[in-house]
Structure formats: structure tokens, C-alpha cells
Amino acid sequence: MVTKPADIDVETIKRSLKLKDDKFIGHFHLNENGNYTISDIRRPDFSLFILPDGRKQKEILFHPQKNHNLTDNSYYEFTWTLEGRKNKNTYIFTVNEDANFQIVTPEILVERLHDDIINYPAGAGQKIVKMLDTLKNQLTASGKEIFIYELLQNANDYPYEKTVDVEFYITKKVPYFPAYRGTVQ
Question: Cβ(57)–Cβ(37) under 8 Å?
């Protein structure tokens, strides 16, 4: 049985799911029928959207009524609406087609993360620095040059393709490593 939005207090749902607003980021894949499957649903800070029972949010099927010029296999920030609720932990989200879609490129993502971290309270920032330092020490325990090989090994463990291209970028603010697919050769 699906509970309809009229029976649901959206603000209460947002509070219980710790959502600041009605935005998600998702990976848009164009299907043969012209619809999109939106997977890898994330919050605007790009953290994975996990439901209270520990499951990831199911894919959202988007049936556009107008042309939005979306690029296939790209991440977009979009506005959601709550279509209904199947049970306590299963929500049916749809896309608000009247709102804007903003592509989320690696550059935009790094800029958002950078801005979020810069605006953290001092105590939170210090905790993050300590965690990153611990991670760095664990990854480079046998030498600083090992870190890059650890990243490449992770690419090698990625299950989707047979080959991989790995690109590293260094910006004025931070280095970042875009997603890669396949096996390092």
C-alpha cells in the first residue's frame, strides 16, 4: 500500500531523513525509450543518501515531459518531490521538472567539497584533518610513493570494464581524482 503525499508531512520526512532541502544529486542514464534512470542518489554535499534502515535509496525513474538537454551518464543536481511512501523506510521520489537541473562535474564537486570544508566549525575541521592524516599514514605506511599505487590498485579492483584510464588533476585549491572504470594494465 502506498501512502500519498496528502497524508505525509514532507517537512517531517525531511527532518527524519536529515535533508536540508529538496535537492538530490544523481547519475542520469538515458534509456532507449527516452526516459532516464537516476541511480547513485546523493545529497547535495555528495554524501550517499542512506535510508534509516541502512539501505540505499532505490533508483528514480524520470519520464521527462519536455526536453532538458541532459547529458547521458552524467551527474545532475535536481529537485525532488515526494510521490508517496510504501512503508516506514521506503519513499517514492519523483523529479520536479519545473525546477532547474545543474550538471555536477568533478570541478563543481571539488569546489563544493572545498567550500563545505572551509565553512566547517573549527572543531569539525580539526577532526577531519586528524582523520585524513590517519588515512594518509595508513595508505603511506611503507613510503609516500605507495599512495599512488594504492589508488591504482583500487582502480584495478573496480568490477565494470576490462581497461581503465586514470586521470589526476591538480587545481589551485586541491588535487582530485575523477572516477575510473576497469582494470589497470
Answer: no
Torsion angle, CA of 12/59/52/126, rounded to 10 degrees?
-100
CA distance 130 to 136: 10
Amino acid at 146: I
The pLDDT tens digits for 40-90 are: 999 988 888 988 888 888 899 999 999 999 999 999 999 999 888 887 778
Nearest in space to 93 (alpha carbons), one of 76, 80, 77, 75: 80
**Residue 35, pLDDT score:** 95
**How is residue 23 written as a grid cell?**
535537492
The pTM score is 0.64
Beta-bridged to residue 115, according to DSSP, are: none
DSSP letter (8 states) at residue 131? H
The C-alpha torsion from 112 through 48 and 57 to 3, rounded to 10°, is -60
CB 37 within 8 A of CB 61: yes
CA angle 2, 6, 10 (to 5 degrees): 90
Rounded-to-integer distance, Cα 15 and Cα 5, Å: 16
**Rounded Cα gap, residues 161 and 181, in angstroms:** 6
**According to the model, what pLDDT value does residue 184 have?**
44
Cα-based angle 39, 43, 49 (whole degrees, multiple of 5): 60
